[in-house]
Design a protein that fits this description.
By secondary structure, this protein is of the alpha+beta class. It has a domain at 3-49 and 149-222. Helices cover 36% and strands 30% of the residues. It contains five helices and nine strands, in the order H-H-E-E-H-H-E-E-E-E-E-E-H-E. It has helices spanning 3-17, 29-32, 69-92, 95-119, 201-214; strands at 49-55, 58-63, 122-126, 131-135, 145-148, 152-167, 173-187, 192-198, 220-222. The strands form two sheets. A five-stranded antiparallel β-sheet has the order 1-2-3-4-5, with helices on one face. A hairpin with a 2-residue loop joins strand 1 (49-55) and strand 2. Helix 3 (69-92) runs antiparallel to helix 4.
Amino acid sequence: MGFLDQLKDTIDNLQKNIKRFDPTTLNDDVAMKTEWTRAKDGGASRQIYEFVQEASHKLEIKVKASSYLFPIIFTLAGFIPMIMGVIFYFKFQDWKIALFMIPFGFTFIAVGVFTFLSYKKSHFFDKSNGYYWKGKEGAVDSAKHKCRLIDIHALQIIQEHIVRNSNSSSGSSGQTSYTSYELNLVLKDGKRFNVLDHAGKQLLMEEAEKVSQFLGGKPVWDGTYF
């Protein structure tokens, strides 16, 4: 059995053995047609967002300035093997090393740039136009991830167990795992929009209350079980 098969079996076993939240305890018809599995694949091990409310009618959740350090370092690190690959090709005519180093470095650069651009998208709740959206400020019309504020029925908190492959400096591989928590907007039709996803449960609870208060006291459904 290969590593990917073993990882899949591990995740499947965890999914079978973990407890499930019972939405009937909420006594809400919308809760019954809402999914209680993760709304977003993966999950962050740390919180990278901050809440900004410069006016009473608008709440913005944006990436912290310090969090941009990761994609910047990742991008810059990618230039090192690319430059080395070019040197090996033109100075030593070693195309084999160049063929490995250049794509390797480009992968780092691509991941860094993609992450940096994704960080530029904030979450906005704006009472002046009546919309929630994810994207650039004022770009609600072009946003794909959006809904009307009046359509938000509740806030949902669920948890997920994340298992990831990890490699040590000695070359050995292993697995790291942690619990991540999602904050999702639940619409009146049961549709969900993911807003936050990180490993800090208490912090996420506090963040959910901030959003709830901004939306006039929308209920917070706590679907976690420990």
